[in-house]
Amino acid sequence: MSGAGKVVCVTGASGYIASWIVKLLLDRGYTVKGTVRSLSDPKKMDHLLSLHGAKERLQLFEANLMEEGSFDSVVDGCECVFHTASPVFLESSNPQDELIKPAVKGTQNVLGSCAKVPSIKRVVLTSSMASVAFNSRPRNPDVVIDETWFSDPVYCEESKLFYHLSKTLAEDAAWKFARENGIDLVTINPGFVFGPLLQPTLNFTSEGALNLIKNVWFIWQPSRKRTTILQKEIKKDKLTRDSVILIGQDKLRSRLAIRVAQPFLWTGCFPEEVIANDYLAKLKFMFTYWKNYAAFGDILIICNAYKASNLLDAGPDGAVYRYVDVRDVALAHILAYEVSSASGRYCLVGTVTNSSEAVNILRKLYPALKLPERPEDGKPAEPLYQISKKKAESLGIHFTPLEVTLRDTVESLKEKNFLQF
């Protein structure tokens, strides 16, 4: 479908997914109005302005998600609004103000502006599998998660999954507002988004991809801490910038978690017991943080950005991931507008697999990465489950193979000097 002569809006235009939406829209001939938080930082916009067709058909505007009416003038005259702007991070000291309120109120404000514009035919909202798959329902190879599934806000809150809670509540608020105001709304619910970057800086999603490739793993700090934790402080001169606290508890079965108050740089001077991987072998990295509660209880705490590639091992083979290529996600947004029969929600997951599969693919593609072998502990892997592709394929999506996505991700990170090997 040609977009020639049609005007659309993309909120959060400089983001990882949004940048690809802008690119594909320009390639199809659309005139694009993009919003950013600030026009004062050209580094966050130059990659958009350099896109083919941007000089003639891309305009950038400053808009504030938390300011009612901020999007009024931007969406005026548009036929479709692609709302991608929302905070994306897992760790928050104040989830209500930093995650939940901006996601919910921001969505309501954008939809409020859209409700004032008769020319807008459809709003396409970037949601997430975080608002689909997180509840107490069992998962096994016979289970098929589809668009009828909804994450449970109570489950998310009790599990301290505040990002997932924010996406769940924001999507709920969007559907409620759309019904009450006669807005034609479609949501795109992608899984773990990988693929090449257009922007010159790492955001949360692309940094997660880099961390997987570089074997840099995270442990996140829950808002609630136990008072019975046994703590042993390591001398500060063993590290640069900060000290480390080891935490032992019976539930950890002699394994240790690490707490670091601030990011630090590894000098190779860690005590022997910290380097020993079997202390850390079963701690999962950030995208499976919530699974640790069931195994270890509410005691795992954090570090913001480990720089030591050998500090933590690659995590358990059993963790399950829902991969999708960023280019597929961007195209799905556009097709959700262009296909007149599109409606409701669209789960976007190309591959559901154990975490070891992605590492094995990377190892075969790039032996120079020297990814570590994962320890065998005799425990069964987390069972795989299925995510329906039926609606996404009906939209016209042909999912990119995981091997292609991972290869293109690595090449993009190398090209932008985020990865050297």
TrEMBL record:
GO terms for biological process: flavonoid biosynthetic process. It catalyses: a (2R,3S,4S)-leucoanthocyanidin + NADP(+) = a (2R,3R)-dihydroflavonol + NADPH + H(+); (2S)-flavan-4-ol + NADP(+) = (2S)-flavanone + NADPH + H(+). GO terms for molecular function: dihydroflavanol 4-reductase activity; flavanone 4-reductase activity. Keywords: Flavonoid biosynthesis, NADP, Oxidoreductase. InterPro entries: Epimerase_deHydtase (IPR001509), NAD(P)-bd_dom_sf (IPR036291), NAD(P)_dehydrat-like (IPR050425). Its EC number is 1.1.1.219, 1.1.1.234. Bifunctional enzyme involved in flavonoid metabolism. This is Dihydroflavonol 4-reductase.
